[in-house]
Every structure is written in C-alpha cells, then in structure tokens.
Amino acid sequence: MVLKVSEIPEEEMMLSGTRLCSGCGLQLAYRWALKALGPKTIVTNPASCSTVCGGVGGYTPLKVPVFYCCFETVAANAAGAAAALKAKGQDKDIVVLAWAGDGGTYDIGFQGLSGASERGDNFIFACVNNQAYMNTGIQRSGATPYGAKTTTTPILGKQQMNKNMLKIMEAHGLSYIAQTSTSHPRDIYEKFQKAREFNGKGVRYIEILGTCPPGWGFPTDKSIELARLAVQTGYWPLLERIEGKLVISSPSKRYMDKTKRKDIREFLKGQSRFRHLKEADFKIWEDYIDGMWEGIRLELEKQGDL
Amino acid sequence: MPERKVITGNHAAAYACKSAGVEVVAAYPITPQSPVVEKISEFVESGELPNTQFVCVESEQSAISAVIAASQMGCRVFTASSANGLAYMYELLCWAAGSRLPIVMCIATRALGAPWSVWTDHQDAFSVRDVGFMQQFVESNQETYDTVLMSYRVAEDPRVYLPAFVSYDGYILSHTTMSVQIEDDDKVREFLPPLKHHLNLTDFDNVHSVNPVTPPGLTIRPEGNTPGYYEFRYSMQKAHEYSIEIVEEVAKEFGEKFGRYYGNGIYKSYQADDAEVLIFAVASVASESRGVVDTLRNEGLKVGLISLKLYRPFPIEHLRKAFSKAKLVVVFDRDVGYGVEGILCAELKTALYAAENRPKIRGFVVGLGGRDITADQLIGGVKLAVQEQEIPEVEKNTHVEFIGVHLEELGFKKEEF
Amino acid sequence: MVRTKQDDAFEKNVARTILASMQTPAVGEAGNTGEWRTMRPILHNDLCIVVKSGKPTCHLCWMYCPEITVSREIPPVFNYTYCKGCGICATECPTKAIEMVPEKEAPSCEGNEGGEF
C-alpha cells in the first residue's frame, strides 16, 4: 500500500534556509524522519553534518529540541535521556531519537550503540550513512564502500569493504531494524513511524543511505536518482527486521530476481569517487551484491517466506 | 529518623545519593570506586530508590554522557569514577561544565597509569581541575556524605549552576568503615529541595536546542542577539568566582541544620590560630598531618594545619587570610604537576603572590601511587623546612623534592657521583 | 580600575543569566539561502500533474525538496528566498514540468519572491 500524499501530514519539523549543501540527501532524510516522529521528539546528535544542519549560534531550523553531544556518545546520551523520561513518567509520549552519521555509528560511536542495544535502552537510533566523514572533509569511514576515493584514500580508493552494520545490529537482537534510502521518503516516513510503535522495546535501528553531492562527486540534482539507483541495482535493499524476522520492503522485492536489477555500473559511474574503478572492481561489487541477496534468499527460505 | 551506620566511604557516597533522591544514576565500575555502583544498584533493585533509574553503562564515557543527557531533561543525577575512568570521561566533563549542568560526581582518588596502580593519590582529581567543575576534598566518610549533599545544594543554586566533584581517597576512605549519620529524608529535603533546573528539554511549550556549534562572535538576528562561545566561558568563570560565598553560606546552613561543620566550608584549620608554621594539604594527607601537628606542638614547635576543602574554585582570598600570620608554609602534595612542582604548592604560591605578608613556601611530594605516608616523613619534612627556611639557595631551588622514595634499596648510591 | 560593588552585581547577573548555549527555531538560520542559487526552478503549469488533474496526487517536487521550498499547493509554489537551486525537483518531475533556468535569465517571478510557508 503506497501512502497517499494527503495521508502525510503537511507539518514540517524543519524550517527552510539551513546551512547544508545544495541537494543534500541527509537533509531530506532528517526532514522525513522528524515528520514521521512528530513534535514530541527529543533528538540527540553527535558531531556530523546534521550538527551543521542544526545551525550555528542561537537559532536553528529544527523545531524539535535537539541536544548536541560529543562524537562518540550519542547512544549513551539517548540512553540517559530515555532513563530520564522514564524517571519522569514521560517515556510513553516522548520519543528519543539518536541521529548520527556513519562515523558516529560504525566507528567512534559504536561502543555506546552496542552497549545501549544490549541493555535495551528505549530509543530510536538512526544512522544517516553518507559513507564517509563528510563533515570533516570526506575522509574514509568504516561505512565507506570498496573502491571509493576519499581524502584519506585519495589515490587507490578504499581497499576494504564496509562493515556489515545491519548484521552487527541483528546480532544484538534488536526488536526493529530497518534500512531505507533518501530516494524513498514514504519508506523513511513509514519506517520511523513503525520504529516509534516499538516504543518500550529497546533500541530500534534505522539506517538511511544519505547521498552527498560533494562527497560522492555528482551534480546536486542527481541526489535522489543516485539513491534510487542504489536500490534498483540491488546494492541497497530496503528492508526491515521485525523481532528478528526479515522482511524485504515492497520497492526492493523485485530485486530478489537478479535479472531485474540494474547494472551496478550505472550507480558507480555517476560518481567521481568511483571514476577510477576497473572491470575487476565492478566484479567485486557485483559479487558483493549477489552474495548479499543470496544470504537474503536463504534466510527468507528458512523463514518460509519464499 | 536519622540512622547511624558503620559504612565505607563508597557506601557513604551511595547513601548520599539516596538521601538526595537522585533520579538518574549511570556509572561504570573501577577500583576503588566500584562499591558505589554496586550499592546504588542494590538500592534500585531492592526498591529503596523507587524513583531512580540506574543505567548500567558499558564505559565511563557513557556513564557521564548518560547523566549529562538526563540532567538536560531536568533530572538530578549522579555518577562516580576514579583515575583512568575519570580520564576517559575528560571530554564529557568539559561538556557538562560548559552546559552548566548541576551534576554531582564522586572521585574515589587513585593513581593514574602507567604503570597500573589501583592505590590512592590525588593526580586524577587534580588532572581535571580545569574542566570547569567545582571540587571539594574530604577527610572522612561522614564528610563524604555531607559534602555530596552540600554539593548538590550549591551546584543547583541558580546563582551557580555548575557541576561538582567530591573527592575522597581510594581505599583510605573508599574501603574503610567509619560511623556515618544518615539523615532523615524529610530533613534532607528541607535542606535540598527538588531541583529547579535552568534546562529541561522535555518542556515542549518552550522548545530549545542546546549546545550547538557556537561561534566566536555573537549571533546577530532581528529576533535577538545571542552569546558567542566567549561569553559562555566568561559567565562560567564568573559563576566560579562568586560560588565561593555560596559554598560558605551552604556549609553554614548545613551546620545549623545537621550540627556538623567542616571549618568554614572552604578549609578546615587545626591549631592554626597561633601557628608560625602551617601545613597545607588536602584529604588523606591533611588527615595524616593532624597527628603530626600534635607531635610537633609537644616538641614546642608552633605548627598548625590548613586542610583545603574547596579546591575549585580556588579560594584565594580565604587562603591569603588563612596564611597571613604564618612565617612558613609546608605543602604536601600527593600529586605532581609534571615539569613544574606539586600542584597544590604551585597554586598556593600563585594565590599568595599578592598577599601582604607572604610566607615562605616549601613544597614536598608524598605518597604517589598509594605509597604509605608516615607521620615521621611529614614530621621530617616540616622540620627540614623549619631548619632551612633562612637559606636563600633552598628557597630558590626549582627541583621538586619527593619524600619517601626508596632508591638506595635499588642500588643507587649518591656517593658514587 | 578598583573594583566596586557594582562590578560584583553586574558580573553575578551575567553568571546567572548566560548559562547553556541554547537555540530557538527560526526560518533562514543560514540566511537567505536562495542567494546561493545559480539555477532557478520554473514550473510549467501546463505540464504539471497536480495542476492538470486539480488533485493532490503527485507532489514529488514537494516530497523530494531537501530544503522544504516547494509547497504542497495546486499549483506548487517555490520559495525562492531559500531555494538553493539544487535541481532535484526538475530531475524528479515525472512530466518534466519544472525547468531549471539560469538565474540571470530567469523571468521575474513576482508573487513568488520570499515569503514563508
């Protein structure tokens, strides 16, 4: 069921005129996540491009309360906020959102996220994955995919694969895990609403692919198109894991069939960070995608969903 | 009804949390602080603290982060740590102070690695002197309990709004049982009413974000100008400066209500009135010095003690007055400002620079990493300082003197050089 | 200068007034970000699905605008005060009803200039 436009609230939790780059994917994700969670949301945000979005000095485009925190501490902050809400008896009506980038999630922020996940602290953790440390100037992160050039992998491109964060979070036994993309605002909206419905069931983890025009090297107007290509090539499946059970979201279902997937070259060639890749590199990407879908197929089969 | 218990310093800190009715606690175990965490867990699980949330975090960094967050939601919070755990919190300590959060945290003092040590010295507590917290040192478990309560009262005062450390010696207090009076909750509530925080992000009628990137200059907008980073830091320093009188005021009120006084709340003096020689120290070193004063008095030396309680803000005016009549001050530091000298000694020299009757000051380092401090060592230090006080070369010495370093037993012989 | 009681009173007031660095919500936090724009989106009503159908059906331009500068009205209205001119709306429009025009060649869009929604 596709959500009708009229079913989506018109009220925005973000105001126009932010400091983010033109065509920023993160901003779109932030806009839709906050729209889904509504005004009774408290956000905590570590060092990231979202901090820039929040504004410099005494004014902010964000209409919900945000408390900024140190790079590595977002999950612990959210845990503290959740504990405070519980102490005050407000945990039913206020939602805590930890909103981090891939650095604050995969790398420096990982310990806190893992700890809070294991404890079952009550908040939503969202990772806007733009696949490098964009805010400090496009340095490689644990989320940077194979081959991508960054300012710390300037010549060869990254020689390692990215961490499989979804698997890591799955291993923590979370009640709700989802992956979505800026190309699918409705999907973002619905997944954040669902994460909210899991209130009281520990950490809910949502990862969003956040396109970055300067970091990935593409024209600003292609921000959505590239995010969509990531989905259409099967590279970035939209999915959920609800109480451990894997569910492929409807826009990605068809890509179970390899022949329906677009060529990964379409995604890669649209970005200057991948311009140096050769046929052998494309093969690595293809194998990565095929392997991922094979894992998905096996799991769905085991669940009896195929 | 007040209750008298024979408890350790760690448990005294935990009981103080209970009496204060803290709402959120997050702490991570580290020797010698761990029993604080355990006792608070016990209070929460047994239902003795029914309205308290305990976040059993996976690190000190997360502990302080969680209490910072909870404080920003308007809650009274508590954490505790030692040495390396405290050092791991450093970034967040600055964050807590920079947001003017009335967090109270205990430090069960311990030497910092490397090499590993679990025993006491004051290096950890002094190493966080510049983060913006207030800091008090104590000499007994009762003083720990009382100072935690007083620290909440000061930290939450609208004229102050600063976080505060209460530092007690690892093992010497943390693991030693003493008789402690636990006060009646209602009476404590009269002294320490519920927190009225300047920050409460759960107030959705008045939505604000907090601690954004704050520029060097002001933010100039038609809606109103807002401060730059510099103004916030100016204000924090001023809050420190004027908090000294609040500490004194609160200590007086505490004494009137509960009958226990710790000097003037700023420092405790012992036999200081007519003293020609004053020992200056904190915490365990100060406790040890009390007997030393008695011994030296019996020998006819007019010795006294100034045991500093309030270390941050540094009570310069009080110290100028306290040392105005002394001819000689002997400072015993259980810490080193590496590359300079004992931290307390250096700070006292700074404080007395503009004093009218500036005494001579001789500093010694003692008892690092839990090395026993004996009365004889301190007596030796005082006597040496007295004997050599008129020797100009000694006064000009820039080499730090350690008492109780055993080098001869390791084969080092001065006569060989 | 010798300090006076007035200095104390003044500083105490600052210390208890300037506390944590706080923000209040405001539009245009980064200024009029429309000034960043080099290309301006122009809507051709005759190609626009919502204009033609008169129903709130498509609105992809509203949905995909990161800056929230396209309204969900019929016809959609651009907020040129803050539109950064990224061109996502033009690229994503299924009927190519939005054209990106270089700023200096853009027709004056009276009634669309500025304003908040």
Give a concise summary.
The complex is a heterotrimer of chains A (306), B (417) and C (117). Chain B is α/β, with parallel strands linked by helices and 417 residues long.
Q: How would you explain this protein's 3D organization?
A:
The complex is a heterotrimer of chains A (306), B (417) and C (117). Chain A is 39% helix and 14% strand. With 306 residues, chain A is of the alpha/beta class. In chain A, strands 3-1-4-5-7-6-8-9 form an eight-stranded mixed β-sheet, sandwiched between helices. The longest helix of chain A has 25 residues, at 279-303. Chain A is globular. Chain A starts with 24 loop residues before the first helix and ends with a helix. By secondary structure, chain B is of the alpha/beta class. Chain B has two domains: 3-191, Rossmann fold (3-Layer(aba) Sandwich), CATH 3.40.50.970; 267-410, Rossmann fold. Chain B contains 14 helices and 16 strands. Chain B has helices spanning 9-20, 34-46, 60-72, 83-88, 90-98, 123-127, 141-155, 185-191, 229-258, 283-298, 316-322, 343-352, 375-387, 392-396; strands spanning 3-7, 24-26, 53-55, 77-81, 104-109, 134-137, 164-169, 178-182, 209-210, 267-270, 277-281, 303-308, 310-312, 328-333, 360-366, 401-403. In chain B, strands 3-2-4-5-7-6-13 form a seven-stranded mixed β-sheet, with helices on both faces. In chain B, α1 (9-20) packs across α2, α1 (9-20) packs parallel to α7 (141-155) and α7 (141-155) packs across α9 (229-258). Chain B starts with a strand and ends in a 14-residue tail after the last strand. The model of chain B has no long low-confidence stretch (mean pLDDT 97). Chain C is α+β, with helices and mostly antiparallel strands. Chain C has a domain at 38-111: Alpha-Beta Plaits (2-Layer Sandwich). The longest helix of chain C has 13 residues, at 5-17. In chain C, 37% of the residues are buried. Chains in contact: A-B, A-C, B-C. β9 (209-210) of chain B pairs antiparallel with β1 of chain C.
